[in-house]
Amino acid sequence: MSIPATDEPPSVETPEPPPKAPPNRRRALIEWGVILLVALLAALLLRTFIIQPYFIPSGSMEPTLKVGDKVLVNKLSYDFHSIHRGDVIVFKKPADDFTPGIKDLIKRVIGLPGETISSKDGFVYINGVRLNEPWLPKVDRGVTVGIKPTLIPPGEYYVMGDNRTDSSDSRVIGPIPKSLIVGRAFIKVWPLDRIGTL
Length: 198
Hints:
Layout (H helix, E strand, L loop, with lengths): L24 H26 E5 L14 E5 L2 H4 L7 E5 L11 E8 L4 E5 L2 E4 L2 E2 L19 E2 L4 E5 L9 H4 L2 E2 L3 E10 L5 E2 L1
Antiparallel strand pairs: 1-2, 2-11, 3-4, 3-11, 4-9, 5-6, 5-8, 6-7, 9-10, 11-12
């Protein structure tokens, strides 16, 4: 007996792949919940202890900072190095400052602990030597007003706004204790066309 010839290859049965397990939606939701919680916690810790954004509410630091600008403040900066003249700092409003609606102020450090600060002919003097202030535009140099000779106590800093004719600063509220200093403003982040370091 002969087997008829065929052009078809012999069939081989292949096992069907096992069905895919349905996705575990509950597990996926839990994983995303944990990821979001960790991200939120990290952002909260970052804002509370390391870097915090601040909004500029007044023109006391013009032209360096304008109303509506946003800056980032490094809260750990002075844990690693001392406060320097020229630093732009954020500090808590002193108890004897009754300006309504403001909790924190931003100014520039001009005088350091133990120094005597004064003004003459519109310029700032530190220990009798005229202070070079490269952070001020040339047209605004020589407009400092009303600094009576002041010996800055230990642990305190004399701060001023860059807008010398319109700033309520240490000329009014006196030197600022280090305990009130929140941190150093180091960069402008808003508006985008004014991004830059301080």
